[in-house]
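Re: magnesium ion structure - here you go.
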Amino acid sequence: MTEIARPPLRRVAVLIPTYNERDTLPVIVRRVRELIPDVDVVVLDDNSPDGTGEVADTMAAADAQVHVLHREGKEGLGAAYLAGFGWAMDAGYDAVVEMDADGSHRPEHLPAMLAAAEHADAVIGSRWVRGGSVVNWPLHRKALSVGGNLYVKLLLGMPVNDATAGYRVYRVEALRAMGLDDVESLGYCFQTDLTWRAVKQGLTVVEVPITFVEREVGDSKMSPDIMKESLRRITSWGVQHRARQVRELVGGTREPRWHTL
Ligand SMILES: Nc1nc2c(ncn2[C@@H]2O[C@H](COP(=O)(O)OP(=O)(O)OP(=O)(O)O)[C@@H](O)[C@H]2O)c(=O)[nH]1
Ligand SMILES: [Mg+2]
């Protein structure tokens, strides 16, 4: 069980990873800045061929609270976020927010999520708790998300309903406690990976209901490889976790560290 101090959140950075989001990015940045003027925005661009990086530079030149991290090429969501976390820690932020560029993560939910983060180490904007919902998702996307979360729960037994969600707040002290040096997850599996690390550390993870709205413009970056990576890694963590539980049960050393199924 890791107890970390939770001073009031003063400096918050909203991290927005982008790959070919030149049409969506200006809209989301403007909405964040208008709705929650105190928070800063950091765009994490993987050298998008469509010129998203230059669009971000133009916004940063006009607004001192908008920053851009230019990365060399497409290395996946996980790598972009790890770079963003490091940048935000060095710059002295108290917390970071993970937010997609495509409008799926509505800034209107952020005040409630930040309020929850005053008393939590990590906050997940959750589609699958009471009050949460998804708008404009075809049935197969819903099935994938519900099925994926069910699989995560069965294997890892985490008390989290939307472990794959990408709209989050982390206190920087929580990120430090989670030990992110050996994170290998590249794609969206990164989200489950970090949830698992937070739960294993005994950190307080809170879910706040959100309405997730499917993107209307731009292309999805979801791919079969990203899904395969999730399946492979989650299965491997689950097998290790369940084997450890069996060993503890047989050896009589089991201690209830967190609620498990
Ligand atoms: N920097 C960076 N950003 C990425 C990468 N892959 C995806 N993203 C960004 O991560 C966010 C989520 O990606 P989406 O394509 O919207 O994924 P999704 O929400 O699962 O798919 P849709 O439902 O179709 O929108 C977007 O802001 C993307 O631009 C990457 O390799 N590098
Ligand atoms: Mg999306």
